[in-house]
Amino acid sequence: MELVPSFLAWLQPLAIWMTAPSFDTLQMLATGWMFASRRTVTSIILAAGAVGRKHHSAFHRFFAEARWSRDAVGLAVFDLIAPWLGEIIALALDDTLARKRGLKVFGAGMHHDPLLSTRKTAVMNWGHSWVVLGVLVRFPFRADRYFCLPILFRLYLNREAAPRARRVYRTRPELAVEMLTVLCNQGKNKRFHVVADSLYGGQSVLLPLPPNCDLTSRLHLDARLYDRPPMRQPGTHGRPRKRGARVATPRQMLNARCRQVELKLYGRHDRVRLADVQGVWHANANRTLRIVAVEPVTGGRTRQAFYSTCVDATAEQVLAWYAQRWAIEQTFQETKSRLGFEEPQGWSRRAVERTAPVAMLLYSLIVLWFAAHGHRLWQPPQRPWYRSKRGPAFVDMLDTLRHETLRTAVSTLGLRGPGSRKITQALQQVASLAA
Questions:
Q1: Sign of CA dihedral 181, 187, 190, 193
Q2: Range of the domain at 304
């Protein structure tokens, strides 16, 4: 069985970055990945019906030994996203945990597990920590939300795993800067704007940020802020000042008089107190920032502070930009639950560094296929008890791709008569249950 030609057309631009046998293997792997109940290589081979077409070791070698570049394939996917992008390309940056078992798995270590941890208790888990850079896109078929399409990936090795792998230890922010540099060098004539949480908002990212990229992130409530340095007067001795006079911290800004506005973020309406100012952060005295302090009046949230390198932006724009970051959290949840991001069992270096990212790259390709073709084929499920569904989610996109693949496969059998329709409906129902 093969995927529908309309989806294979989205895979075709990736062929330039690998040999013809490797690309043939990729097409079979993509087919099996859509239908497999568990995303191990052997399960994918069975789901694709590829047993006997190639030796099973060829599928393992595609991840462990084949000559293709993960970054090159990711940048090729970025080129496919380009028709839906505007003048300023929005990016999201974050990390996620892929739980694993086995002491000999390359790069595995103990990492913070945000799903099991609480505000009082931090829980660690064994696995891989992936730093992911994705493109934020809003499609016409679902204009009420953003989709984050992953394109670049880096495996973070903690201080214990890096020596075992004979690698130099590198922090998550350093890996994030590397990915931003790769993407920004690829599009030197483009303007990027990345949103990230506080881990990627410090000086380790802000200082080496590429010149054609802006950053919006969280800020500590007690951050030291300064005015811009005054103009240097002629005849003044000594080195020029890097900072001006000290200004109020975000916490002090909220203790003073603020304006109240109503915001619609994260699908809810909240009334908040806002204060914003242009200033210089002590960590980076060479760049003026737009600082925003917010205190919700309704909604039960705590005081927070944000900043953006877009100094001409309003406070409401900064908060709206940061809220777009939630799309990458949805991507993590959907790739883990629907595409088995945590399930591959490779243990060698190249197998580990390639297999899991393929799941997220397939996520991007499925969303792109649905935006171009699949949304016309999607039929909302008949669920009278579920009235709040606004539009297709990723599970509907995957379900539509499976249905269309099965319909195309059945149509090639040449079945005739009233029974053929029942067979098609039965296969589509099985695909729905598998989704």
A1: negative
A2: 216-231+241-313
Residue 206: inside a domain: no
**CB of 48 closer than 8 Å to CB of 35:** yes
pLDDT at 434 over 60: no
Q: Is residue 144 part of a domain?
A: yes
Are residue 109 and residue 57 in the same domain, yes or no?
A: no
Average pLDDT of the residues in 99-125: 92
Q: Do residues 154 and 57 share a domain?
A: no
What are the pLDDT digits (tens) for 321-358?
Answer: 999 999 999 999 999 999 999 999 899 999 999 999 99
The pTM (predicted TM-score) of the whole model is 0.92
Q: Quick one: how far is CA 240 from the chain centroid?
A: 42
- Distance CA(153)–CA(25), nearest Å, equals 22
338 and 408 co-located in one domain = no
Tell me whether residue 319 is in a domain.
no
Distances (CA, A) of 322 to 90, 95, 250, 318: 11, 16, 17, 6
Q: Is residue 97 part of a domain?
A: yes
H or E element at residue 358? helix 349-369
